[in-house]
Specification:
- With 318 residues, this protein is of the alpha+beta class.
- The protein has a single domain, classed as Sulfite Oxidase, Chain A, domain 2 (Alpha-Beta Complex), CATH 3.90.420.
- Strands 1, 4, 5, 8, 9, 10, 12 and 13 form an eight-stranded mixed β-sheet that branches. Strands 3-2-11-6-7 form a five-stranded mixed β-sheet.
- The structure holds ligand MTE.
- Ligand MTE binds next to loops.
Length: 318
C-alpha cells in the first residue's frame, strides 16, 4: 500500500454500463432466506431473486451501525484497493468487470468436524439472514469511508462447519485467476491474496461477510461476490472475492505481512498511538472531505473489541 498514490478519480471516468453488464444471480438464495425468515415461509427456487445491482429486499437493521454520514456510492465503488486489478485507486473500477463471478464456490476445509467441501455460493449463503451494517472502514494509508454493507456475521457461518479445538485461526484466500485479474500477471504481491484472523476475532459479532452495499449486490471492484469486513482493523484485513476459508492451527502469513513484514503485521488493529514506520496513524482523511479527523482506537469499536487484546502489547503485535 502507498506503493503508488493515485489521484481521486473523476465521476466522468465511471462506466456503469460496463459494470452493470456483469449481472449475477448468486444473491437470490440469500435474499430468499431473508424473505423466508421474515415470513416464516419455506424458500422457493425463485423467491426473492435479485440480480447484480438489484436491491436486496428485507434487510435487517443492525444495532452495530454507526449513524455517521455515509460515503457516496460513487466514492465506495471508484476509490478502491484491489491489487489484483492494478495499483491505482481507479484500476479496480476500470478492470474488475473482467472477473467472472458466476458460478462461484468457496472451499471450506481444515480443522473441522464437517468434511471439506467446495460449497456453491448459494448454499453458503442460504441460511443467513442479511443485515445492513454501516461501518467505518479505515485504510492503513490514513483515509477512511463510511460504508453501508449488506452481510451477515462470519461467526454464524463458522459455527455451521464445527471447527475443532485445534482451529485457532481462520485463513482466507482470494480468487487466483490471472487471465481475468490483470494485476496477478505482475508481482506486486505474492498471489493469491491471503488474510487471517484469530478464531475469537473471526467469531466476534462485528466481523461480517459482506455480499452487498447500499442495499444492492457488491460490484466486482468491492470484492464480489463475497468479502470479509472487520471494522476495527485496517482495511487490508478485509479480504475480497473469497474462494477459500480454512480453519488452521498456526497463525497464517497474510499477504501484506509477507510483502513488507516490518510495516504490516498480523493483527493490524487500527491504533492511532502506533505509527506506521513511514507515516503517522494519528489522523485520517474521510474520502470526500477536505479536513482530517482524529483516528480512534480500534477505529471507534474499542468498547466492543478491546477485551480481545487484554494483556497484549499492541506495539509488538501490530
Ligand atoms: N482484498 C484483495 N483480494 N486484494 C486487495 O488488494 N485490498 C485491501 C482490502 N482487501 C485488497 C483486498 C485493502 S488495502 C483495503 S483498504 C480494502 O480492501 C479496500 O476495500 P474497498 O475497496 O471496498 O474500500
Amino acid at each position: 500500500m502507498l506503493i503508488k498514490q493515485a489521484p481521486d478519480i473523476r465521476s466522468s471516468e465511471i462506466t456503469p454500463e460496463r459494470v452493470y453488464r456483469n449481472r449475477r444471480e448468486f444473491i437470490r438464495t440469500a435474499s430468499g432466506a431473508v424473505a423466508g425468515a421474515m415470513a416464516g415461509a419455506a424458500f422457493g427456487p425463485e423467491a426473492g431473486r435479485v440480480e447484480a445491482q438489484e436491491p436486496i429486499p428485507n434487510l435487517l437493521k443492525s444495532p452495530f451501525s454507526t449513524d455517521e454520514a455515509l460515503n457516496s456510492f460513487e466514492d465506495i465503488t471508484t476509490y478502491n484497493n484491489f491489487y489484483e486489478f492494478g495499483l491505482d485507486k481507479g484500476d479496480p473500477a476500470r478492470y474488475a468487470h473482467e472477473m467472472t463471478i458466476d458460478p462461484w464456490s468457496v472451499r471450506v476445509e481444515g480443522e473441522m468436524n464437517k468434511p471439506a467441501a467446495d460449497v456453491p455460493l448459494e448454499t453458503l449463503l442460504r441460511p443467513h439472514p442479511l443485515e445492513e451494517r454501516i461501518y467505518r472502514l479505515r485504510c492503513v494509508e490514513a483515509w477512511s469511508m463510511v460504508v453501508p454493507w449488506v452481510g451477515f456475521p462470519l461467526g454464524d457461518l463458522i459455527k455451521r462447519f464445527e471447527p475443532t479445538s485445534k482451529a485457532r485461526y481462520v485463513r482466507f484466500e482470494t480468487l487466483y485467476r490471472p487471465s481475468e485479474m490483470r494485476g496477478q500477471r505482475g508481482r506486486s504481491l505474492d498471489w493469491p491474496y491471503v488474510e487471517g484472523l484469530r478464531m475469537d476475532e473471526a467469531m466476534h459479532p462485528l466481523t461480517i461477510l459482506a455480499v452487498g452495499v447500499y442495499g444492492k449486490t457488491l460490484l466486482n471492484q468491492q470484492g464480489a461476490p463475497l468479502r470479509l469486513v472487520v471494522p476495527w482493523k485496517y482495511g487490508f484485513k478485509s479480504i475480497k472475492s473469497i474462494v477459500r476459508i480454512q480453519f488452521v492451527e498456526d497463525q497464517p502469513r497474510n499477504s501484506w505481512n509477507v510483502a513488507i513484514p516490518n510495516e504490516y503485521g498480523f493483527y493490524s488493529n487500527v491504533n492511532p498511538e502506533v505509527n506506521h514506520p513511514r507515516w503517522s496513524q494519528a489522523s485520517e482523511r474521510r474520502i470526500g472531505s477536505f479536513f482530517r479527523i482524529r483516528t480512534q482506537m480500534f477505529n471507534g469499536y474499542a468498547d466492543q473489541v478491546a477485551s480481545l487484546y487484554d494483556g497484549m502489547d499492541l506495539r509488538r503485535y501490530y
